[in-house]
């Protein structure tokens, strides 16, 4: 599993090699004093970090203060030093901030996309972007992109052998930008919606179908830190943490609901998906000879999500632009592995398989129309609406 312990704290970079002026020191000291007083008078030492009754974990209030204090300094000292702003989507929010429509783009010129990637160097933090101008783009297909301070996403169609795959590569600034939405915003809701409708409702920049948990009773379902279903004997589970990590549990590995709840707490897990199988684990293709769902040895449209690096992900679905649109699960594993995924996991496929970008399906869907479903995974901008 990737080491996510990278230092994500903002780095203050003086714009001049001259010593900071007395004015700079005074302003900075004033901000620190105000922040300290805010903590002293608003955070009660008896406030618990974890509410046991409903198994909901809240970020420590001092950690919530850090981004606000950092951004206050960034604004106050913007003419003197550069301080990178920090943003986090509140865990309890049912929707994300609205993306800036002016920052979506679509082009047939790969050089335009490369320029957008180059401009996002601060967000990428030296990471290698998988998309490049030399990809085997599918004929006459546009490349979509979105970029702001907190998220970079590029969506494209590519010829892989005799198949067409739609990819979405995403780099975000904070783990809170990787989210799950359930139709009706509650577990076991009878509501089913199209992925595009759910994506628009939660302000997703880019989304992919989930595991369609309502279609079956097997698996482990975690949503907003709560364990709703515990039937782990037959399906692999992919857990997503508050820091944006992916953690796998193999079928039958979790032995009890109580142990699973402790596992959720210990690993700071926000939600899970339960379809599978695991495709790539710890940088190696994971071979599965038998699996009870997904008909892994048959030719079907596939859907997968993978992690490339810290807060850096790849989503893939097969499209129906050609007659050879489907593949085995092992083919999907190789594609995710070949594209740099350190961890990768299969989601529900067939007509469910869809990537939604800027509120619209990016791939040509099996049978030509979206299927209603119970859930999506999505990535969002973290910039508050008021700052757009």
Written description of the protein model:
This protein has 388 residues and is an alpha+beta fold. The chain has two domains: 13-82, no CATH class; 101-387, no CATH class. It contains seven helices and 25 strands. It has helices at residues 22-42, 61-76, 110-119, 121-124, 195-201, 257-266, 329-338, and strands at 13-14, 50-51, 56-57, 81-82, 104-107, 143-147, 151-160, 163-172, 178-182, 193-194, 206-209, 219-223, 226-231, 237-241, 246-249, 269-273, 278-281, 284-285, 303-309, 312-318, 343-347, 355-357, 360-361, 372-373, 375-379. A hairpin with a 2-residue loop joins strand 7 and strand 8. The longest helix is centred in the N-terminal third of the chain and has 21 residues, at 22-42.
Characteristic key phrases:
388 residues, nine-stranded antiparallel β-sheet, globular, disordered N terminus, 2 domains, 20% helix, five-stranded antiparallel β-sheet
Question: Can you give me a brief rundown of this structure?
Answer:
Helices cover 20% and strands 28% of the residues. With 388 residues, the chain is an alpha+beta fold.
């Amino acid at each position: 599993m990737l080491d996510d312990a990278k230092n994500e704290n903002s780095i203050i970079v003086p714009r001049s090699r001259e010593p900071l002026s007395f004015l700079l020191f005074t302003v900075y000291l004033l901000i620190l004093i105000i922040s300290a007083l805010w903590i002293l008078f608003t955070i009660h030492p008896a406030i618990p970090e974890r509410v046991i009754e409903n198994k909901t974990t809240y970020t420590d209030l001092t950690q919530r203060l850090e981004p606000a204090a950092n951004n206050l300094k960034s604004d106050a000292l913007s003419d003197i030093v550069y301080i990178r702003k920090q943003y986090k989507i509140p865990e309890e929010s049912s929707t994300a901030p609205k993306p800036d429509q002016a920052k979506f783009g679509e082009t047939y010129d790969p050089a335009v996309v490369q320029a957008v990637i180059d401009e996002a160097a601060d967000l990428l933090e030296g990471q290698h972007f998988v998309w490049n101008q030399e990809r085997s783009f599918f004929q006459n297909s546009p490349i979509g992109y979105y970029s702001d301070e907190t998220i970079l996403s590029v969506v494209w169609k590519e010829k892989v052998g005799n198949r067409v795959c739609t990819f979405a590569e995403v780099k975000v600034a904070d783990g809170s930008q990787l989210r799950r939405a359930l139709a009706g915003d509650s577990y076991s809701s009878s509501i089913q919606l199209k992925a595009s409708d759910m994506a628009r409702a939660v302000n997703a920049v880019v989304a992919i179908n989930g595991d369609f948990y309502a279609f079956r009773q097997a698996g482990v379902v975690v949503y907003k830190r709560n364990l709703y279903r515990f039937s782990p004997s037959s399906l692999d589970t992919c857990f997503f943490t508050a820091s944006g990590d992916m953690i796998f549990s193999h079928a039958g590995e979790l032995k009890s609901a109580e142990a699973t709840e402790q596992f959720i707490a210990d690993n700071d897990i926000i939600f899970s998906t339960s379809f599978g199988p695991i495709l790539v684990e710890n940088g190696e293709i994971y071979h599965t000879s038998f699996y009870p769902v997904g008909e892994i040895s048959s030719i079907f449209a596939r859907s997968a999500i993978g992690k490339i690096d810290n807060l850096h992900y790849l989503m893939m679905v097969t499209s129906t632009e050609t007659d050879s649109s489907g593949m085995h699960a092992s083919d999907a594993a190789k594609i995710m592995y070949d594209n740099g995924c350190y961890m990768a996991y299969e989601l529900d496929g067939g007509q469910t398989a869809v990537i939604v970008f800027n509120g619209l399906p990016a791939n040509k869907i099996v049978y030509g129309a979206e299927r209603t479903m119970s859930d999506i995974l999505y990535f969002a901008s973290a910039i508050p609406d008021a700052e757009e």
